[in-house]
Amino acid sequence: DTEVTQTPKHLVMGMTNKKSLKCEQHMGHRAMYWYKQKAKKPPELMFVYSYEKLSINESVPSRFSPECPNSSLLNLHLHALQPEDSALYLCASSQGRLAGGTDTQYFGPGTRLTVL
Amino acid sequence: AQSVTQLDSQVPVFEEAPVELRCNYSSSVSVYLFWYVQYPNQGLQLLLKYLSGSTLVKGINGFEAEFNKSQTSFHLRKPSVHISDTAEYFCAVRGIYNFNKFYFGSGTKLNVKP
Fold first, then answer.
1. pLDDT tens-digit series, residues B35-71
2. Which end of chain A has fewer CB within 10 Å, C or N?
3. Does A48 contact B at CB distance below 8 Å?
C-alpha cells in the first residue's frame, strides 16, 4: 500500500481566515513533505519533516505553519493568506534517510486551495 | 547541483501510436531518476524509477524508460498509447547531498487524440 491521504479535497478561504490542511500515511514512512503546485507548473518544495523534526524550510512565508504531531500525520496551518497562495497543495512521504539511495516519494491527491 | 530538463512542453500523439517523452539531467555524480504522472486534478503518481542496475526500467501502465549515462538522458517511452494516458508527465532527479530534495522538470503534457 502506497497511499497518502489528504483532507480536505477542496478549500475556499478568505484572507482573514485560519484553516488547516491534513495529510496522513500509514506506510511507516519517516519523512513527510509539503509541496505547492500552481497550474501548469511542477511542484515546489515547501517543507520537509524527517523523524518528526523540521529539516527543510524553503523560505516559506510565516503565514504557512507546518506541524508534524506524530510519524503518520502532517498538518499545514494557514493564516492570513493572499490570493496568490491559491494553488494545489500536495503532501508526500518517503521512508527517509535510512532508505538511503532507494528512498522514493509517494504523493497524496492534493488539496485545491482558493483564497478569496 | 542537480537539475532536469524536459525539452517538450506538449506532445500531441494519436491513439495507438508510440510516444517518447524526453528528459535530460545534469549531474556530475551518480543520480537517482524518477518519472511521475499527474492526471487532471490529481496528485502525482510514480510511474517508474532508476536507482541502479539495469538501464532499462519498466514501470506501470506499459511505460518504460532508459537511463543513458553518456547522453545524460532518461527518456520515457510507450509503444502504444491510449486516450487514458493523456496527462502531465514530470521527470525528477533526487538530490545527492540531500535525499529529501527532488528537482522536477517543467513537465510535458501528453495529449492523446482519437
1. 999 998 889 999 999 988 889 999 999 999 999 989 9
2. N
3. yes
